[in-house]
Amino acid sequence: MELLDPLTLARTRDLAWLSRHIAAGVLLGVQHSRRRGAGLEFQQYRSYQPGDPINHVDWKLYARSDRYYVREAEQESQMHVCFVLDASASMAQPSFAVPELTKLQYAKCWIATLCWLLQAQGDRCSLLVLNDRGIGRIPPGQGEGHHHRIALELQRSEATGHWPGAAQLQPLWAQFEPRSQVVLVSDFFEREREISDFAQRLHAAGRPCLPLQVLVEAEQTFPFDGELRVRDPEAPGSSELDARSQRRQYLEAFAQAQQALAADFAARECPLTSVQVEEPLADAVHRFINQHSRVA
Amino acid sequence: MQWPDWSGFWQSPQWLWLALVFLVPLVIHLLQRSAPREITFAAARWLQERQPQSWKRLQLRDRWLLALRLLLLATLVALVAGPLREPGGDRGSVLLVDPRIEAGELDSFLQQTEGFDRTLWLQPQPQPVTSTEPHTGDLWHSLSSLAAQPEFRDAHILLRSGVNAGGYRALRYSPHWQWHTLQEAGDYPVPTPVMAVIGDQPHWLEPMLQQLADSGEARPEIRTMADAAALDPREADWLLYNRPGALPESARRFARGGGLLITDERVTPTADPGFAALTGDPGPARQAAALGRGSWLRYRGDWDDSAFYRRPELPEQLWHQWTRQDWPLHAAARPRWSVGQLPGAPVPDEQVATPARAPLEQPLLLALLVLLLVERAVTLSRRRADG
């Protein structure tokens, strides 16, 4: 199975399909029987939909009714994973190599893929899409229908505004159940440590917060030259500068900030996974899973 | 390759419009500088805002690229303006000097008449007078071969005498030549004979001619020929025939036409022309016979024999014998031409090939191409680096 190129990632609308496609690549080589797990209890029949694995079709029922049905089993819930997606304006940053692909689009696909993997092993997922213009929320659930709901909510969300203030976050704390894990997807470009504080508070409450940082390549290499007029999406106005003379200083400051961030999370035993939107999504999922083997 | 003389190029005001051409890339660079690239960059918080520096705004970006583009335009202009340049340009005046003129005479002439940039010997391939003095060639031939060369179209020509021996073919000359003479008509110099050789050159001939030239006597022009049939008495004066046996009819015809036939006794006549022994001078013994308008000089014995050539005075003796035979008569009978009334036909300007501009245009074209490639490469690589 070939890896999806960034352009496909940027252009495909159907997140549910895309995430399953990617997840199949991530799970390449894992035995199906093992994935299904032991002690599954029959829950319901569901009519076959394109994309369902053919070995889930109940052939005896097909012989009787001449219709395809898929057996769905109820799985013991292992864990609740809450995805928190930062939808502030900085997440709208497009890649300079593939201008169609933004950080947010990448993050959406990434969440949908991991969510599919989790629901395939019987975990419950929930979703929070955060910015100060409004909060998108999908309560915990499981199964393919739930995955579809999450995919729809992700598709609807847009990157705008800032990280929400403390007052807006207040009603959300109840959502994080005691035995839940939080996957925080953001670029961690914060004004006054507001995202770090959020992670810090979750950690203090005993909900491990696993961070995924989504960057574009240009932020790490600064490949510009000549005169630039730079607009910060989360700040008004723009500034002019000479790229060549600024480059060295920028790279130093950026690397320093990255180090501080990584050190911050490493201290809480939740290592920071940093991905570039230009890298294949399956690789990024793999890397995240390997770093937090507790999740998958 | 000859580069044109660019002096005076910038003095004429018609080239001022070039300034407008060079303004184009300058304006492009100024415009480019005033519009910086605009990007949205989420990590802008780690960038330092630059202090507003008004003087820096005036600085041009990509100064190397600008210089490259200006150079490109200059090459293009030079290429396009090629036909506008003075054809040939001013090469300075050339003085062509008759090789018979002594160094002292030339010096005194140059002192009286100044302003020559180059002084060359009057030869088919003119050499500077600082080089060794050439053999006295055929003036008629030299002038004809130089008449159509653009380099010498406006030359000054210095002759020893205003009256000179003509040649067989028509004289070709440039109507722009300016003539100078040391003697107006004066004594008419005896022209140097042209000598044809048929058969092997006698081995004493070359040393003899060399010695004659070294001692200041004239050195005849030698033409080695295979066959006497092609020999024309109007083009050659003497024929040295060195093939033992009967004298062919063509050689006899040459002598009858007015040439001097020189052989030794191994060459035998088909019919006795009535030789008369010539005595009275110390040279090798010989006999002569009149053949038509010319004569036959026949040496006794074999001239490859050491008895013939083992003489200290041989060169002078032979030269004396040959020139005495009937050369003064023939020389005096030859047509003459004077500087005042040039015979023959002038070479019109239309027939003169203008100095080829191709040697200049090709390197320019090549330079233009290379510059264009470099400019494109630099620009495209910049654009790619920008994003």
From TrEMBL, chain A:
Domain spans labelled DUF58: 44-257
InterPro entries to which the protein is assigned, alphabetical: DUF58, vWFA_dom_sf
Family matches, as Pfam families: DUF58
Top-level division of the source organism's lineage: Bacteria
Protein's name in the database: DUF58 domain-containing protein
TrEMBL record, chain B:
Keywords: Membrane, Transmembrane, Transmembrane helix
UniProt-listed InterPro entries: Aerotolerance_reg_N (IPR024163), Double_TM_dom (IPR011933)
Domain Aerotolerance regulator N-terminal: 10-83
Coiled-coil segments: none
Transmembrane regions: 15-31, 64-84
Domain of life: Bacteria
NCBIfam families, sorted: two_anch (TIGR02226)
Name of the molecule in the record: N-terminal double-transmembrane domain-containing protein
